[in-house]
Design a protein that fits this description.
The structure is a homodimer of 355-residue chains. Chain A is α+β, with helices and mostly antiparallel strands. Helix content of chain A is 29%, strand content 25%. In chain A, a hairpin with a 5-residue loop joins strand 7 and strand 8. The interface between A and B is large, with 47 and 46 residues.
């Protein structure tokens, strides 16, 4: 796996069960994924030589993030290395212009968009074509606001009823399996909470979302886990973003589904049978742990464990900093409000927030 | 953790979530637990110098097995190292004579037993005082059978209705939490299957088992997870064996309980809050994967994953050998017979048994 953040960390947990040896290419030995795995090489994801040297020791190469440049990925494929997802699929997760064009060609629901900022009425959303994530690279642009001087596209502001996400895993031989659609709660462009399955979604929208995910995975030839972030608009579903890897919106699946997104990603890229994705409980809620002003996990963890004994706490091995994703908490149960309260309570304690 | 077998391997998976750094003392770099953890030292568990050097780098020392000699453990404690469970408790998991004596003094139900083979009528069971596990060190002795020439005790053969196990975690400050009693199925002294909760147990026996486990953990001052193997006899429960660590009979808890035995053991030895132990499903069945004559996991794993998509498969990173514990499979569901069939089916495929 190229990259050694929290996704590599949780992928290693799944790899252990399957008897696999996960190798990681870490930017630094202190990366969360490097701290817990024995097979670590150090190198930057945009250093072609480092990535190639690393990849030669692997049966299959996959990714913790989208920051490996296209030419490097394509170069690996030309050397005969199994890269999953492959360069042509990853292109659509790395380049928002290409993604919007391709999804439009497929007749799938995307917001009105343009390369030309003058072509859309303001207010609109401007998005960096490459490199954005977690709210970075996205601007809400009103009358008179300046535009950043980078390669960007502009999109209509969709009227949002709820934000949703749907994940699907796909094997090289084309088998697919979806998880239930989830509802995501975003703050400042960062996902703060996920409720699985989405509690306020009509069955027909849920079905549409699943079909959308399968269509995208198949048409874009995605291998591994594909995450589709969706807007539920009054008129129907609109595709927001794609990620071709395990994703924050799927962390609930570690406890909440018979097969976690991390195990499924490994099974998919190895062309093994895909696992059952049924939920383990009527409701799973995942709340992200973002660093607060006075977060001290060494002090707060024992209290959180004691106060919310039903919480599954996942820490990412990172130093606390305000706003940084330090971990997440999942709680399973029967009713959305109660489960959400308990997960949030554990996160509040971990952050060191006054109760 | 002293020892780096499958328990260390699964403990590492739990340690990752809690943000802990699990260090292991492995006999060999190829041990299952050493293969997947970055902080490995090599040394034998009965090499006092190796164990002491290892222990000095740890905040808390715990064990993957019972094979560290008492004097070494006591020596660590004298050096001020936190050893959990401690030497005085571990003594009762290492020495069957001491265990039987102590449990008898506490008035707890143990089989009739003696140091003197002539004191009990045959047939009886002879047990090595130290070093036995997985059926080794246990002999069913009939009229005329020779006795092995080692330090042993003899016990009456209990009339067994079912075999059971109960686990409890206990913190240094004395908090305890039990899991539901499970039924175990043994073959040749090795646990082959566990059904959780025990499906054919009266509530009063279940309650007795929980009270027994809490009493033993408290009276013996156990810290961490204690496993009590029990016989359900026509007249009541009888204590068979003790283990002061995560145990094969608790592997179901990884998926089947809100808190796994591995996470709970870490929480207990760190004196953190203990987690919720309620089951995630009406039935969890764990089936051990023992090597067969033609087991080839690289060939059989993809088939098992595809044929039994609801199975949670855990492999231990070992070379296949007939009779060797190579992994286990857990399935959750609603009815014992169906769930058991599916878990067994996955194991049969993994072993390479004809279907």
């Amino acid at each position: 796996m190229v990259g050694a953040g929290q996704l590599a960390r949780m992928t290693h947990q799944a790899a252990i069960s399957l008897g696999l040896s996960l190798r990681v290419l870490a930017e630094s030995a202190g990366d969360g994924g490097a701290l817990v795995t024995p097979l670590v090489e150090i190198g930057a994801p945009d250093d072609a030589e480092a990535v190639e040297r690393f990849a030669k020791g692997c049966d299959v190469v996959t990714f913790d993030h989208e920051h490996v440049p296209q030419p490097i990925i394509a170069g690996l494929e030309r050397s005969g290395i199994a890269v999953r997802p492959g360069a042509s699929a990853l292109h659509f997760a790395q380049d928002k212009r290409a993604m919007r064009q391709r999804l439009g060609e497929l007749g799938l629901p995307v917001p009105a968009w343009s390369d030309d900022p003058a072509a859309l009425p303001r207010p609109y959303v401007a998005k960096a074509v490459t490199g954005g994530y977690d709210g970075r690279g996205v601007w809400f642009v009103d009358e008179g606001d300046p535009l950043p001087d980078i390669d960007l596209i502009v999109e209509e502001r969709v009227s949002i009823v709820h934000e949703l996400a749907i994940q699907v895993a796909r094997t090289p031989s084309g088998k697919t399996r979806t998880w239930p659609v989830v509802e995501t709660v975003q703050r400042d462009g960062i996902c703060v909470q996920v409720v699985a399955p989405a509690p306020r979604l009509s069955p027909s929208f849920a079905n549409s979302a699943e079909q959308l995910a399968i269509t995208i995975a198949t048409e874009l030839d995605v291998v591994g886990v594909l995450t589709v972030e969706l807007f539920e608009a009054p008129t129907g579903l609109v595709i927001n973003e794609l990620a071709m890897r395990p994703h924050n919106s799927g962390h609930w699946s570690i406890e909440g589904s018979a097969t976690s997104q991390f195990e499924q990603h490994l099974r998919a890229i190895l062309d093994w049978g895909l696992g059952d994705t049924r939920p383990r409980a009527p409701v799973s809620v995942m709340v992200n742990l973002l660093g607060g002003e006075s977060t001290d996990l060494a002090a707060s963890l024992p209290t959180a464990l004691a106060e919310v004994p039903e919480a599954s706490i996942h820490l990412y091995g990172k130093q606390a900093r305000p706003g940084r994703k330090l971990g997440h908490v999942t709680v399973l149960g029967d009713d959305v409000a109660g489960v959400r309260d308990r997960a949030q309570r554990a996160v509040d304690i971990l952050r060191g927030d006054p109760s």
